[in-house]
Amino acid sequence: MSAPNGIDPAVPPSGPGCVECDRDGGWWVHLRRCAQCGHVGCCDTSPRQHATAHFRATGHPIVRSFEPGESWYWDYSSNEMLDGPDLPEPQHRPADQTVPGPRDRVPADWQQHIH
Q: Which fold has domain 1-85?
């Protein structure tokens, strides 16, 4: 299968967590992986919504879930689910990472901060 535009099947993920949240000491609910450059950002339920912010800043339209057991793609430009190729390992965040996570940065009242 050839990859749709916006998906680079050779690029690895940027790391095990949201780039910006890790940098700033934040936390997330779920993670999304940019299918074009590998940037890992937090989902729209998360307080800072870095995956969508990455799309707005770069124009990279397609993300893939970075959660264990999920392989779906989302196209921000068309608001549609897509099929796509396997991406380089790792396919998901560390399995022992909590949701929300990471554990040591999630506030006790985290449910008051989600969208």
A: Herpes Virus-1 (3.30.40)
